[in-house]
Design goal:
This protein is an all-beta fold. It is built from no helices and 11 strands.
Length: 120
């Protein structure tokens, strides 16, 4: 089994910063692409940022220049550094990973989510 656990969410004022972390654990052979998604109340889940195992990054337009995704392959962790936060960034943030298990089975896994609230 594979588990993803996020931590680092919380309440922050507009203009502030937060760093989210996500750890992958379990019967893992290889972690491929990792990413962060978010879901605001009443809205669909949306992609925020992704990073390949080689470190190539992509971002949704609304966070470009404010958020930075990174990863530590040895620790099987992915991070999201969020700066210049806006009230519209308020959402539950989910970690996502494409994982190959030790039994050579691949699948996409999700964390349980962590709440980020940005006050105006």
């Amino acid at each position: 089994q594979v588990q993803l656990v996020e931590f680092g969410g919380g309440l922050v004022q507009a203009g502030g910063s937060l760093r989210l972390s996500c750890a992958a654990s379990g019967s893992i052979d290889r972690v491929n692409d990792m990413g962060w998604y978010r879901q605001a109340p009443g809205k669909q889940r949306e992609l925020v940022a992704t990073i390949t195992s080689g470190g190539s990054q992509s971002y949704t337009d609304s966070v470009k220049g404010r958020f930075a995704i990174s990863r530590d392959n040895a620790k099987r962790m992915v991070y999201l550094q969020m700066s210049s936060l806006k009230p519209e960034d308020t959402a539950v943030y989910y970690c996502n990973a494409d994982v190959r298990s030790i039994w050579s089975r691949s699948g996409v896994y999700w964390g349980q989510g962590t709440q980020v609230t940005v006050s105006s």
